Amino acid sequence: MLSIGELAKKANISRRTLHYYDEIGLLKPTKVDDKNYRYYDQNALLRLQEIRLLKSIGFTLRQIRQMVGQPVVRADEKMWITSLQEQIKIIQKEKENLERKQYYLQSTVHAIQVTGQVKANEIFELITSLEDREVENGVIVATFPDQLFTDEEMEILQQLPLLGSKDPRLVELIELIQQIRQNIHKPVSDTIVQGFAEALHVQIVRLFKGNINLVEKYWKLITPNENEAPTVYGFDYKIVSYINQMLEYYYMQQE
User: Fold this and answer.
1) Residue 200 and residue 182: Cα distance in Å, rounded?
2) Is the distance from CB of 246 to CB of 197 less than 8 angstroms?
3) Sign of torsion over alpha carbons 215, 216, 217, 219
4) How far apart (Å, rounded) are the C-alpha atoms in residues 167 and 141?
5) Where in the chain is the domain with CATH 1.10.1660.10?
6) Angle between helices 237-254 and 191-207 (to 10 degrees)
7) Strands, E assignment, the chain
């Protein structure tokens, strides 16, 4: 048995905290003698480790009390392993939740950068549409209709940079779209605009591995009709139409 002072020292926790845990029913002493001295068995160390871990990842004491359940009977090797494995599961779940939150925040940053505006309703709708989809390696993978693309084309599409990702190619693409949007009032024949057209052409060839047929199929898929919501966030009818005209003029000059 460990006295409350010995347990506090071993667990690097204050006696006051142990008294409070006893008071709220989170960690009851194994024995209280006739002088009201509290004593704990070795199971208390295991329970304290669980409590401290759960606190460190943001759970309240009330939530922890519900999670840890009844005291363990015997802190043998099997019990420790079981407890630690459960804690690993908790950490993994919390990690996934944090990854999803980080992805949402980064997607919001990218959405604002691409559109040049803060459209709260549209951003909320974007995040809501992603809530039921699985996060893989920190991003939500894009989906495409299988019947439209070959296996080879799907492989290329799955490698495209995604909003919310840390892909360095995305940074370049967003900066380019920002510049195009800022100059959308200029004629497509403008020298600066044609510089953007050339830069975008280079990016397109690189991203789609030179597969021009795939570029045309993909662009047709994401091109919205007038007054229609964009298929890819930020690529609304106005910007897509301008890019089409800009590139068309660029290709004419190359002939």
Assistant:
1) 15
2) yes
3) positive
4) 13
5) 2-75
6) 90
7) 2-3, 31-32, 38-40, 135-136, 139-140
Q: Compute the half-sphere exposure of residue 32: CA atoms within 13 Å on the CB side of its CA.
A: 5
C-alpha span between 24 and 185 (Å, rounded) = 66
Instruction: Give the angle subtended at the CA of 173 by the CAs of 188 and 163, to the nearest 5°.
Output: 130
String of b and e for 140-164 (b: at least 16 CB within 10 Å)? beeeeeeeebeeebeebbeebbbbb
Does the pTM exceed 0.85? no
As a dihedral over the C-alpha atoms of residue 125, residue 126, residue 128, residue 133, rounded to 10 degrees, the angle is 160
Q: What mean pLDDT is predicted for residues 244-250?
A: 94
The string of pLDDT tens digits covering residues 27-36 is 888 888 888 8
89 or 137, which is more confident: 89
Query: How many C-beta atoms surround the C-beta of residue 91 within 10 A?
Result: 14
Phi, psi for 245 (deg, rounded to 5): -65, -40
Q: Supply the CATH classification number for the domain 2-75.
A: 1.10.1660.10
Distance CA 181, CA 18 (A): 60
